[in-house]
């Protein structure tokens, strides 16, 4: 089980990247999160910007790792808007960290929102949001879950989750740190306890992307923050992986797809890591 420092560190790391993205000119931002700076230390943000500008981070991490994190934010944001427009009833954010899209997407309206995360991370987030977010969605719920002790279904049910409702599950930046048993348990819950047509979206690594010295450095950095990359999927195997677990209408966006969508114009020269992708799929009718 993570200690308080570890539970917060990776969440703050992603928020840090979003805060730095906000310092770019508006036409060069891959995502826009006005709340991100509330979660990060200004000195840390300044130092990280210097490391990025000097190219030092690109010499440590696989090239394009940071830009993938920002493209991921944008891709999932756009998918959330599409699903909201299509009439979903609920949004469940699994491992929500310091994600703020539920507070800043105008189309959110009266959709029920369940933010699921470790109690320590949620406590830090709620403190940081005090006096910052003007309006929470009216049906918003924080759902603290310690996955070492709690059952996801029980905690969601206690918060008012409706199994008969069409739901979007956002599972960003999580699956690579889980065991296959943990992944199957979560996918099984989604497939068996949400309405047909419900959607899940998550990012993942290809197995062959986890080799080499820079990938090893990324492993060391995530371990220092209390995480360990434990799971990947072979390239080309996402469809059978999800179909065998009760999903259909599978879409997969790899680095080439993401580049075509977002790294154009003033962002055309930004690097994007190979071997990372984003998948979405719908719960099949039984």
Q: Can you characterise this structure?
A:
With 286 residues, this protein is an alpha/beta fold. It has a single domain (4-283), classed as Vaccinia Virus protein VP39 (Rossmann fold), CATH 3.40.50. Helices cover 41% and strands 15% of the residues. The protein has helices at residues 4-21, 42-54, 56-60, 65-85, 101-104, 119-129, 152-158, 180-192, 213-224, 238-243, 255-262; strands at 90-94, 112-117, 140-144, 167-171, 199-205, 247-253, 276-283. A 7-stranded mixed beta sheet has the order 3-2-1-4-5-7-6. α1 (4-21) crosses α2 (42-54). The two termini are 36 Å apart.
Describe the sheet with the most strands: 7 strands, mixed
| Average pLDDT score | 88
CATH homologous superfamily placement: Vaccinia Virus protein VP39
Model regions low in confidence, pLDDT < 50 over at least 5 residues: 1-7
How large is the count of helical segments?
A: 11
The general outline is globular
Strand order of the largest sheet: 3-2-1-4-5-7-6
In short:
By secondary structure, this protein is α/β, with parallel strands linked by helices. It is built from eleven helices and seven strands. Strand 1 (90-94), helix 5 and strand 2 form a beta-alpha-beta unit.
Question: What layout of secondary structure does this protein have?
Answer:
Blueprint: H1 4-21, H2 42-54, H3 56-60, H4 65-85, E1 90-94, H5 101-104, E2 112-117, H6 119-129, E3 140-144, H7 152-158, E4 167-171, H8 180-192, E5 199-205, H9 213-224, H10 238-243, E6 247-253, H11 255-262, E7 276-283
Parallel strand pairs: 1-2, 1-4, 2-3, 4-5
Antiparallel strand pairs: 5-7, 6-7
